[in-house]
Amino acid sequence: MKQLVLSEWLLTQLSQNKFPKRMPTHRRIYEAIRQAISDGVLASGTRLPSTRSLSDELSVSRNTILAAFEQLLDEGYVAAQTGSGTYVAYNQPDGFSKKPISTATIEPKPQDDAGLSRRGKAAAGSLNRQSHEVQPFTPGEDDYSQFPTMLWRRLLNRQWRAPDPSLLDYGHAGGYLPLRMAIAEYLRVSRAVNLTVDQVLITAGTQQSIDLCARLLTDHGDRAWIENPGYWAARRVLEVNGLQLHPVSVDNEGMAPSTKDFRATPKLIYTTPSHQYPKGMVMSYGRRRLLLDYAESRKAWIIEDDYDSEFRFEGRPISSLQGMDQNARVLYMGTFSKVMYPGIRLGYLVVPPNLVTSFKSGLYELQRPGQVVIQAALADFIEEGHFANHIRRLRQTYAERRKLLQKSLATVAEVGARLSPVDSGLHLVVEFDQEVDDVRVATMAAEHGLRVNPLSNYGIGEKREKGLIVGYAYAATENISKYGNVLANVIKAGLKNRTP
Amino acid sequence: MKQLVLSEWLLTQLSQNKFPKRMPTHRRIYEAIRQAISDGVLASGTRLPSTRSLSDELSVSRNTILAAFEQLLDEGYVAAQTGSGTYVAYNQPDGFSKKPISTATIEPKPQDDAGLSRRGKAAAGSLNRQSHEVQPFTPGEDDYSQFPTMLWRRLLNRQWRAPDPSLLDYGHAGGYLPLRMAIAEYLRVSRAVNLTVDQVLITAGTQQSIDLCARLLTDHGDRAWIENPGYWAARRVLEVNGLQLHPVSVDNEGMAPSTKDFRATPKLIYTTPSHQYPKGMVMSYGRRRLLLDYAESRKAWIIEDDYDSEFRFEGRPISSLQGMDQNARVLYMGTFSKVMYPGIRLGYLVVPPNLVTSFKSGLYELQRPGQVVIQAALADFIEEGHFANHIRRLRQTYAERRKLLQKSLATVAEVGARLSPVDSGLHLVVEFDQEVDDVRVATMAAEHGLRVNPLSNYGIGEKREKGLIVGYAYAATENISKYGNVLANVIKAGLKNRTP
C-alpha cells in the first residue's frame, strides 16, 4: 500500500465510524492500522507515512497520530528505524490474531526476564504484566473526559504568570502549604480524620505513599497483613520492599482476622475500611475497634487506604478508621487520581504527629517530591469550590451509570451469579461460585470487546473467591445498557457451560 | 505587637533592604518575622495577621506570604490553630539562636525516630537530615531564576488547549514518545549513547531511576559498588533497597577498584564516569575498559549517572561509558532538574534492549509515572530549539561564575588548601589535608551566611578525604567575588587554627 493510499484508507475507516462511540481518535487510528496489518493490506517492511503528513491529511493533531504510533511501536506491530521512519515490523507480536482487542491473558516473553532479580521478576516479570487497554468496564479507570481542562489551564496559568521561585524547587516541607491546609480541612470535615496541617504530606500518589510507609516503618522480612481478596498494586509495593505478605480473609464486616491470623503478628496492616477493595464492604464498628486494639497491643502500624471515598453513593459518609484511633497507630492515605486525572500524580498521607519530621525527611530523601506549581493550582481548585462541584457532577454521572449497569446485569441471577448489592466505588462485583473459572469468563468478555477483571486475580492462595469486577466509570452513559446486556449474556453463557 | 504594627514593621524591614540582594521576598519576610520573635518584639502566643491581609498591606503575593509562613511553621517558630489562625509558638525550636542562618549541623530529635524501622532510621532519621536552606554556594542547586517561565507557560498552554485524553492518563509505555525521541537524538549526538528510542524510559528523576534499577536487578543483601567519596543520595536509595554498599576509592582516573575490590563481586556498580561526583575527574579510557570487562565477566550491572553533562566547560564532550559497552551491561541515566527546574521531576533511563519490556512494566507497576502534559511541553521545548539555547545561556553564566569563584579562592593555597583544577559541573572542590576538620570549616562558613558542604560528608569509612564542595550555580554573578573572598578568609582562618 503506498503512503498516499494509507491516509485515504484511514480516512475511509474513520468516517465509516465502525468504532465504539467513545473510543478516542488515537485508538481508532491504532485499530485501523493494526487491522490493515492483520489483513495483509499493509505488508511487512512497508514504510508508514510521517506523523506530520498523516496529521495533515487526516486533519488530526500530531499528538493523536503519535499516540497511535506509540501503541503500535510498543506492541511490536511497527518498528522505528532511527533517522528513516517507521516500518511495519517483520516479526509481528506472538499470538497475533484477528481479534480487535487484546484478551485479558498475557503472553509470556521469557527473554525479557533474563537478568531480573527475584524481586524484579515478582514486580515486573512477564507473568505479572497487566494489559493497560482501557475499554468499557475496565476497573481502575475513571472518566477524565469530564475533567474541566479549560478551568484547570486558567489556574495553572495563574501560577506560571509570576512564579515564586519556591514553586520551581523541590518540595521540601511535605508539600505546598495551602494545598495541605485544604486537604486537612476536607478530611477533617468529610472523613472525620483527626489532624493538624503539619501531619499532611503530599506524595506522588498511592504507590509512593505505601512505599514510603514500608521503607520507613518496616525492615526486610517483616510481616504485613493484606486483605484477601485485596488491592494487588499495594501487594506489589509491599512485596518489592521485602515484606512477608500474610493474607487475611474478608467477610461482610470487612477484613476478618482469625485466631490463626492474630498469632502472626504483623509490623504493618494494609486495609481499606471505608469500602473494601474490591468487594466494597464497609468495615463494621466492632471490627474497627478490634483492629485498632490489636495494632496497639502489638505496636503494629495500620495503613488506611481511603480510595474513592468521594464516590460513595448511599448513606452517610463513613468516618475514617484513623479518626477512631487514640494511639496514633494509623497512617491515612488518599489520592487525587480519580477525581482529577490519573496523570496528575498527587496523593496525600496523614501521619501520626511523632512521625511528621521523619516522614518529611524520608519523603525528600527517597522521593524528591516536586510539581509545586501543580499543587498550587490544585489548592486554588479546591479553595474556589471547583473540587466540590466536580465531585458532585462526577457522583451524579457515576450513580446513573451504576444504576443502569445494575439493571442490565440483573439477569445473571438466572445462572446462579450474584450481583453484589454493596456500593464499591467505581465498579460492581459479580460473584460466582467457587468452581467457576472466572478467568475464562473474563476472556470471553474480552472477545466481545469488554475488559473486566476476574475476582480471582485479586486473591492469593488456593481457594480464591471467583467473580468479575466490572468498572462503570469509563463507559459512556448511553452505552452502559448495551454493553451491560452483552456482558450479562457472556456471563450466562459462561456459567451455563461451566467445566467442572 | 498588634497586627497593624507587624505589617508596618515588616514594611520598614523590607524597605531598609538589609538583606542579601538576591534573597527572595518570602525569605526576607521569614527572616524579619524570625528576627522579631528572637528580639522579643513578637511575643509567644501573639496571633499573626491573616496571610490575605498581610498580602494586601505589603503589596506582595499571597503565595509569597504563605511561603514565609510555611517555613516559620515548619521550623516551629509559629503554630497553626485550625480555624483560628497562626500564632507565635510557645515552645520555640531547640537551639534557637540569633544567627540569621542555620548552621550546617543538625539538632537530633530522638522522639521523632521512635517507631522507625532500621532502614527507616538510616533513610530519614534525625542524624541523616539535611538542612535545605539554599544560600550562596549550596551545592546541588542551580539558578532556576534564569528559567524562561513565559515561554514554558506558552508551551504548557498549547497542551492544555486541546488535551488528548492520553495526556491525562498514567504514562504506560515508558513515557511520551516525542520526548523519548528527542532525548534519544540528543544522547546519540552529544553523548555517544547507543540506543533506539524504545530503550528510553522517562522517570520522575534520578532517585526514581536508581530505585527502579535496584528493585528490578538486585535482591536484598546483594552487593553494590559505590564511589568513595560519592553521591550520598544514590547511597541512600541503594541502602534502603537492602543492598550491601562496597565503597571503592577514586583516583585521578576516576573509580579505582583494587584487587581487594575485584574479589568483592557486586551485582550493581554505581558510577559517575563523565565527571566523578563530587571530585570531577573524567574516567580514563583504560579504567572504562577495565570496568566494562569486569562487569561482563561477573554479569554485574553498571549504572552510569551522567549528571550535569550539559555543563562541562572545557574540552570536547565526553562520550558515555554506555557507548563503549558491547555487552549490554550499562544502564545510562540523566535528569532535567538542573537544566529546567528541580520541581519538574523528569529524568530518563536508557536500558539495554533485553530489559526494555520488564523495565516499562516495573516503571508502571512500582511508580505509576504520569505528568504526560509536562513531558509533551518539554518535547516541544527541545524540538523547537529552546533547550539548546537555554543550556547555552546557562553555560555562559556558569562559566563566568566559576572563573570568578576560582579567582577569589586562589589565595587558599597560602594555607595548604588546594583548589582542584578539575571541571566538576556546578561546584568547585577545595581539598584539605587529611587531618583538617572540614566540618568545622563548613560550620564557620555557615556562620558567615555561606552554605558549603564538607567533602567528608560524601565519604564512607574511617579515612575520608577532606575539603569543601562549593556550588556556584546559585549565587548571582555580581556577588560571587564578594562571597568568594569571605569564604577564602574563612578557609584561611580555619586552616591556620587547625586543631590536631
UniProtKB/TrEMBL annotation, chains A, B:
Residues 101-142 are annotated as: Disordered. The keyword DNA-binding applies. Residues 23-91 form the HTH gntR-type domain. One of its GO terms (molecular function) is DNA binding. Gene3D superfamilies: Type I PLP-dependent aspartate aminotransferase-like (Major domain), Winged helix-like DNA-binding domain superfamily/Winged helix DNA-binding domain. Keywords: DNA-binding, Pyridoxal phosphate, Transcription, Transcription regulation. In the C-terminal section; belongs to the class-I pyridoxal-phosphate-dependent aminotransferase family. This is Transcriptional regulator. It comes from Methyloradius palustris.
